[in-house]
Input
Amino acid sequence: MSEDAARTGQPGDPTAEKDPADWVTGDEPATGAQKSYLSTLAREAGEQVPDDLSKADASRRIEELKDETGR
Output
């Protein structure tokens, strides 16, 4: 399971999603997968994202860009 889809309960239970601010590894650098997905979403949204995001910040930005792009 990916970090940006971390869950604490049953799979598919939206109430079980952990807030990125509560992730133990949230301060670590964003993963390669997060950076790749962010790059794709940012390009579609016509935006730029910094390269030095943490895992938690990358996850939040992914969610924002998904809303913007309709993904």
